[in-house]
Design brief:
By secondary structure, this protein is an alpha+beta fold. It has helices at about 5-10, 35-45, 50-60, 70-85, 135-150, 170, 185-200, 205-220, 225-240, 295-305, 325-335, 345-390, 440-465, 485-500, 535-565, 575-585, 590-595, 595-600, 605-620, and strands at about 15-20, 25-35, 65-70, 95, 100-105, 115, 125-130, 245, 255-260, 265-275, 275-285, 315, 340, 395-405, 410-420, 420, 430, 480-485, 505-510, 515-520, 525-530.
Amino acid sequence: MFDLEEELKKLPACPGVYIMRDKNDTVIYVGKAVVLKNRVRQYFQNSRNHTGKIRRMVENIDHFEYIITDSEIEALVLESNLIKEYSPKYNTMLKDDKAYPYIKVTVNEAYPRVLFSRSMKRDKAKYYGPYPSVTAVKDTLELLRKIYKIRTCNRSLPADIGKERPCLYYHIGQCDAPCQGFISGEEYRTSINLAMDFLEGNYAAVEKMLKERMSKASESLEFEKAAQARDLLESVRLIASKQKITNTDLEDRDIVAFARDKDEAVVQLFFIRGGKLIGRDHFHMSGVEDETDSQVITSFIKQFYAGTPYIPKEIYLGAETEEAELITEWLSRLRGQKVHLKVPKRGEKEKLVSLAQKNARLVLNQDIEKIRKEEARTTGALREMAEYLSLPMIDRIESYDISNTSGFETVGSMVVYEKGRPKKADYRKFRIKTITGPDDYASMYELLSRRFIHGQQELIKLNESKTDASLGSFTRYPDLILIDGGKGQVNAVLKALSELDISIAVCGMVKDDKHRTRGLYYNGQELPIDKSSELFKLITRIQDETHRFAIEYHRSLRKKRQVHSILDDISSIGPARRRALMKHFGSLDALKAADIEELMKIPSMNRRAAEEVYEFFHQTESSSETPVQ
């Protein structure tokens, strides 16, 4: 039993991270503290100075835990990681989890390559970016191949020179084939240096080269080559036109500003690399209603830069950050060099921040109605459901269904919704083991018993290891269980939960004679639902998804059973040959149509086995009886 007063007395006077959990052991808030003892106590003292969000959070705290750290900056790093892992309900959350592509130049190789990269690693390569879109990267790479004829293969050069024939890129004029020794290392390195100049924004050199190439080809009456040079020149000018010069100091910097409306905010981010605006993006944040501008922008910086591999030298902000010195130190450590956070008040830099803010406001105005509709159909519907069932709150729902065909291959499905959206990573499938025949009640009892026994066993292991590292879908208990069925199925679930001493609300999703949702069976009675409400629509989505998941699993097992039952009747065909046959032919129809010679092409088959397979299917086809599946 968690004794709040006793646990508050045990809090240490050192930096660390505190984790607030509700009665279902769900993490609802993560924070950091310079002195844990002082910070955590503040939540449970007079609430008059607390914001509405903090008061609601404190009301839902069942227990807390904490992790001490050696310094405040370590606490900041840990806080960012835990917020990203748990997505706590009462933290201000960055909704978008975007990754930006890079262009990677393998300068450590004798014959470097210019490649697309999803991440920036700490290796000896040189990276350019991040770029705002995959298309921009691919267009640039294609242009560089055409202009500088840089290799894309994975051959180890110069060790593999001359060992294999040149690839297609050589034959279409987009590679100088260093793999054949057709270009020296020095000449190739010159091409790479020119490509790197291009990536750094030096377009004048390549434009001059292409103009000369076009002019020379025209004078020689090589009009096809002249046209190619002209097209490349247009491509260079197009890429150059998309990059706006912002200043002449050639620094890398990000511009961060935001606009807000009630509980939502949009953050606009401009990427400036080498003094040029190479792209922009926006991010949605939720839970900002009771936050100051400083708190909103601080939350964004912590969550965004904890997940991006590139930190620019300067970050211009539309508002001051909380704990500016601490965050500056953290970002500087991530970058490996000093990072500067600035809030410009005048001049060109202030105009850039203002422009970012205007863009954020534009996006917010465009998206606010869409955001509110999405909120109504997800978390809004959950609030409606909690009020309808007289529950304090609903965040996680688990929905279950049973599927069989006259008792054949009975299976169960577990579908999970969090914050009103499907969480497919937590979906689970079950094959019913102890029940024979079409007994949905007993099958549902087995399904729920196994699910929560498994959860209890995982929780015991986690408590013994004293870590959350392997926290899985079974250890997280739902706020509500939905069952595709009525009174009988609900009672079977309640019996399973009671035997395990688990208390969770259980509802049956009742359908009418036309298999359409008509209401909920809860606490011994059927409750009608307004069919125009978001609650009804959410329940219908969950019911359809649960049914789909169960049916698909059952169908896949039935299909495998049909294939396996036929092939298992052939004495010389064991598991290995069966897999090889199905992998090679893909279907029973293709297997039946194969002759003996074709069957023998499979490495694991000999003539005796091939003849037996052939005779089995052709004898079966000539028989008047249908083989038992």
